[in-house]
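Protocol step 6 of 9: fold each sequence in the batch and record its structure tokens directly after the sequence line. For illustration, a two-sequence batch is reproduced in full.

Sequence one:
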Amino acid sequence: ILGDYAATAAMDTFTASQGDRHPTDLAMLRGARLVSVSETEEGRPWAESRIKQLTGGDKISARFMRQDFFTYTPQFKLLIVGNHKPVLRNVDEAARRRFNIIPFVHKPASPDKRLEEKLKAEYPAILRWMIEGCLDWRENGLLRPESVKEATAAYFDEQDLFGQWIEECCDVGPRLVCKTAELFESWKGFAERNGEHPGSTKAFSANLCKREFIPGRTKASRHFTGICLKKREEWQDAYDR
């Protein structure tokens, strides 16, 4: 229906890899309004910085094979289809603004093998439906169904390992205080036992600040107010799971 305004891309363009992808991947998306991607891989993490770059409204640089670089502003909506949800390492507000999980739970008893053919015959009506939806969006904004809100919230909860550590290993309260080194040691063990790299103490402290815990320091050490570790017998279960 969208013709040249629609494009497809490889999943590798949006997931992390050891080497850099050739900028041709991005060059081919110039001018597209809808980019569809399929075949997600279980356990593979998102290329988060690239996704934020492509969806943030800023210009990006790209080039075709053996040609010069050029810049353009991405205009497309990214639609990713798959049975597996890639790993999201940083569950922050920037990620929450960008991701919407749309669950497809209906499985027909007998799939219609002529469905694509039938839909093609309805292209004019589908295009009109799309235009009406666009006008509704411009007038009323994007109203997400409850099923999308719930599926998206569940995805973020699954991916928020840092939040899981706070829930399982820490107590939270305005009068609680704990040394940063002790908190980080607990987080480090929790992350490693869950197959994740704990990162640096600087990144760890930044994550605590994002969650509105208050940093402080004395002559002897640094600490955070609003959080402390649970007693060992309480949080040991979190490590053993």
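Sequence two, same batch, same settings:
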Amino acid sequence: MNTGTEYSTDGGGMAARSEADRVYARITRHLVPLLFLCYLAAFVNRNNIGLAKLQMQGALGFTDAVYGVAASAFFVGILLFELPSNLMLRRVGVRRTLLRIMVLWGVVAAATMFVRTPAQFYTLRFLLGAFEAGFFPGVVVYLTFWFPAERRAKVIALFMTAAAAAGLVTGPVSGWVLNSMGGVAGLGGWQWLMLLEGVPSVVLGVIAYRVLPEGPEQARWLSPDERRIVQQALGAPEGPHVAGHPLRAALREPCVYLLGFTTFSLGCATNLLIFWLPSIIEATGVTNLQHVGLYVVIPNLTGTIAMVWYGRRSDRRRERHVHFIVAVGAGIAGLCTMAVSHGALPGVMAGAIVATCGIASAYPVLWAIATRLLPRAAAAAGVALISSMGAASGVSSALFGAIRVRAGSLDPALYLVALALVAVVLLFACVIRPKAVEAALINQELRS
């Protein structure tokens, strides 16, 4: 079974490993910073309504239920268009795909400043999801063109830190815009927020189109010897384009459905922490929007650090299973701590920090597992299907809004999501076990 380049312990093997490390450090420097910025822009545009909601409700008269439906509409768009977008990636390439996605989502994000009715709000959030669909799974597949299985958790973690780091922007920066720019040019603070955080996506899309190579063979900054090292590490000389029927191959893989449920459950936890944490913090008695934004930064910052450290640790130990279960367990503990705090700020913040660190750390390990389990012919469609099932968790935002309206707090939602994560732990403990993973890999090897 070929899972990457084998390295011996003699001098030649150590030298080869050292050279490969140097090449992959160079690849990381060329790819990850730009991909990080693109994903950061995506998350900022996706999540800025968490703080904007606190002004939009007063300015437009929207209820929590309207906000919840709008947040869910985004994920409906992703759910419907994620798979088609990723299948198109195989035909049109990564650069054109990112250009289309980022320019369109940037325009729609900025256009949200013109919203006046709930129907307009729902429509633009749906379009934002439809246009963003395919970005995350497309980048994950793109990284598999470069990085072998044993190197993926770290690089996916570096890329995904943008999701946690987005809180650093949507917290203090968004809070400042909301508080300071209201009334400028006759626009509300929330309108300036949509405009100022939408335009950078368009610019980044153009930059990505001009800078990113389609794969190692097109990277002018790699020498022929360095390209050969990458191809040997991948064990796939044919490159990123593989013959076959990717959708059919993906639909035949049981792991797609199991991992899909996992991403759905993690997505519910992520939505709760991203979209509703500002409201949970406000309910503890923090009324200044800038202060709310600063409090939101803390779990996002710790989650970013934890994600990078944990992904690096998983790669170094070459172990995924236990790492994933422990991370999800931390998420469960954090959510329950938030619930039992009953609106006390210290308990809410402690729980949010632990939950964010756990959920954020689980994602790169999960995607390292997924990209290793999926056969190469099914990778693009399989990752898109798994991501689409995760996107279906967006309906949870509407549920959380309804729960808050009926119960007066989000404590029941916190317990509900924690229960879903318990099911994920049981799934990995009883079904997706290390031996089962190895058996699946052997079956893939025999089929190929």
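Proceed to step 7 once all outputs are recorded. Observation for sequence two: Residues 11-47 form the longest helix (37 residues).
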